[in-house]
Amino acid sequence: MAPKSSRKDEEIDFVGLLDSIIADDVDRFKIIMSHAVSPDIYFNTNKYNLPKIISGFPTIVSLTTFFSAVKCSYAIAEMKPKFDKQDKYGRSALHFAAAGGNIDLIKLVAPKPEHYSKFDNHGFHSLSYAAMFNRLEALKYIMQFTDQENNKQALYTAVKFGNLEIVEFLIKELHIPTDIPGIMNAACASGNTEIMDLLNASGIPFDENDEKGIPPFVDAIIHDDVKVLMKLEEKGVDILSDNRPFVPIIEAAACNSEIILNFLLKKGADVNSHNTHGATPLFAALSMRNVGIANKLLDNNSDISQIENILTLTAETGDLNLLQRVVSLVGEDCPELHSKKLLISVLNTGNFEILQFLIEKGLEITDQDSIFFNLAEKCIENESPSTLAMIGIEPLKQKGLFRFVLSKLMQKGATKEMISISEQLLVHEDVNVYCGMAKTEMYFRLLEIDSPELFDLFVKNRKEFDIQKLIRLNRNGTWEKLLNAEKGKPLKLLEYFSKNLMDINELNDDGISILHFAISKNCNLETFKELISLGCDVNLLSTAGTSPLLAACYAKLFNIGYILLEKGSDPNIKGKIGELPSEICSENENGLFLLASILYKGGDVGNSLEIAARKGNWVTVVYLIKSGYAQSSKYSKIISKSLKEGKDTHEIIQILAKQKNSLFDSILSMFNVCK
User: Fold this and answer.
1) Low-confidence winner among 260-269, 310-319, 407-416, 501-510 (lowest mean pLDDT)
2) How many CA atoms lie within 13 A of 458 on its CB side?
3) Which of 175, 439, 508, 603 is 20 to 30 A from 234, comparing alpha carbons?
4) Which of 317, 310, 315 is nearest to 283 (CA)?
5) Are 171 and 177 contacting, i.e. CB atoms less than 8 angstroms apart?
6) What is the pLDDT of residue 381?
7) Three-state SS string across 547-572, please?
8) How far is C-alpha 443 from the geometric centre of its chain's CA atoms?
9) Angle formed by the axes of helices 369-381 and 401-412, nearest 10°
10) Alpha-carbon distance 293 to 290, whole Å?
11) Rounded distance, CA 23 to CA 15, Å?
């Protein structure tokens, strides 16, 4: 999709736009473009399966000319786009038109000679785009506006992309000079042996290095092209000798080219060849972590004694089998097996299989604190408790290691491996697990990690961690964390605390239970079900005399009230001023379902009818009258008499409204409107 700045609020159908361009469906193209803010919008080709060369954000006219969509190109030309507008790679519509190869469209976007003087951000002329895409006729047309340097660049491009027809035209018919640095390398990279012969016939040696001194055979090896390498050998290029900057077998090992390596070995290449820098094929393979090539060279008796730090190089490949093979060759008395460099190298790779193997073979963990701490951090990062156990923690007691453990626990959670690592530290009483943190801070971090196993380790192994004191001093904060009030689902620690560390029915300093607290935090239904299943007393009063059911009614959490009622909450426990849960429910029509449930379970209706009338809650008034529950109110005689006389609800409310100091006038008005 195009950048936001190039779009209207109305979304453009870019998929349909691309389809219309490829099919040159000009009618559909015009309809879609009518929604564009301008004809110069960009198109994000990266979201579509298009040639990589047009990736990025080309303009629409660049796309139409690239796909040679003649009708669409002329249609957008009528919209007056900026033909010279460049994309983020510096390409204008001319570059794309040259790649598309349609001369009429090239003329459309570049009608004047001065239009052909532009280069993209990489210095490529539009002529090179024609050469790149093998557009011979387009190339011939554009060449009338170019100079010799442009032509030589186009020749190099055609060679690199293996476009023989254009190469032949430029060399044979126009006699463009071929003295271009690296042109034979480009031919080898293209894999086109005919172009190689053509260049050689024009005077370019098969072994001519590029401007960096790299011989052409290196490009053949990089591209894994045996055919080109055979061609070079056939033409007399030395592919076997060593003691030079670039040795074919060493390059093959570095490039991980097994097919080239096999070819060279059959030709008699020496597996112990070395270049002017002293590198050997095995050194190159190990340095580039090419394990398969390294094994192949060892199969062919590569001399490991020539390589300094052979164990370090091998360990850095990360392949345990290869390392075991090399260790068996050098022997366990190899001095490098005890070197600090090897240890640091293995630590940096973080491969603990290799570390354990080397320790078993005699690798020494030095007594330097930095080494120990680095290793311990790697163990924690990679969750490897067995390696941590192997090195021991004696040097790590006061080094702040547990702070690092804690941060990883916060990030990754309390996995089995992280619990094992924590246990190794927590069982040692003299290990500093607080690392500058107050115990309260540590306590709340542990709550956030939400791991009963980890918490149990602290409780059982850290005598100075007075959990009861921490709970007592931070009861509200503890409850809030355990209930996970902000996120909903209660922590796994809630059950652990209720069974091991706290009385689930103890009141806090504010005189409320955890059930009252959960109501005040508007926790979800699952939390209340969990609390009740853990043994919370649904009838436990706060010091203010409020039951959980009454608290839920006051908080208008009628769904919670229903759960409490179903779990045995007594609906007849009154509040401090004698209020009943039913009366609180009657104040709000949303409480009708809970009110009905309370009355169904034998709850006292109290003054619910009068309260509902006073609050204008006509739905509840009607319910109480029709259900018969209102007969226990102070209007019971009137209601009972009226019901016996067969009067309907409307008539009863009319009678009630006529009573002295009646509260039913507003209810009657509402009922009349609704009726």
Assistant:
1) 407-416
2) 25
3) 175
4) 310
5) no
6) 75
7) CHHHHHHHCCCHHHHHHHHHCCCCCC
8) 30
9) 10
10) 6
11) 12
Q: Is the pTM of this model over 0.70?
A: no
Q: Which of 604, 623, 603, 602 is nearest to 612 (CA)?
A: 623
What is the C-alpha separation between 99 and 134, in angstroms, rounded? 8
Write down the mean pLDDT value for the chain: 86
User: What is the length of the chain?
Assistant: 675
In terms of DSSP H, where are the helices of 86-171? Answer: 93-100, 103-109, 126-132, 136-142, 148-160, 164-168
Collapsing DSSP to helix, strand or coil, 59 comes out as strand
Report d(CA 622, CA 28) in Å as an integer. 63
126/150 Cα distance (integer angstroms): 9
The two three-digit tokens of residue 207, written as one number: 């072994």
> Average pLDDT in the 600-617 region?
84
Per-residue pLDDT for 423 more than 60? yes
DSSP 274-302: --TT---HHHHHHHTT-HHHHHHHHHTT-
Cα separation, 74 vs 60, whole angstroms: 12
Q: Minimal CA–CA distance to 383: which of 411, 358, 408, 356? A: 408
**pLDDT score at 410:** 79
Q: Encode 100-127: b = buried (16+ Cβ within 10 Å), e = exposed.
A: bbbbebbebbbeeeebbebbbeeebbbb
**Amino acid at the residue 183:** I
Write down the residue that tokens 């008499």 correspond to. Answer: 641
Using CB atoms within 10 Å of the CB of residue 8, give its burial: 0 to 12 exposed, 13 to 18 middle, 19+ buried. exposed
User: Coil, strand or helix: which one is 38?
Assistant: coil
Whole-angstrom distance, CA of residue 124 vs CA of residue 11: 35
CB within 8 Å of 45: residues ≥ 6 apart: 54, 55, 56, 57, 58, 63
What does DSSP assign to residue 431? S
Please give the span between the terminal C-alpha atoms of the chain, in angstroms, as a whole number.
Answer: 57
Mean pLDDT computed over 457-486: 86
Please report where in the chains the tokens 């709550």 appear, as a residue. Answer: 447
Alpha helices in 202-236, H assignment, sequence order: 216-222, 226-234
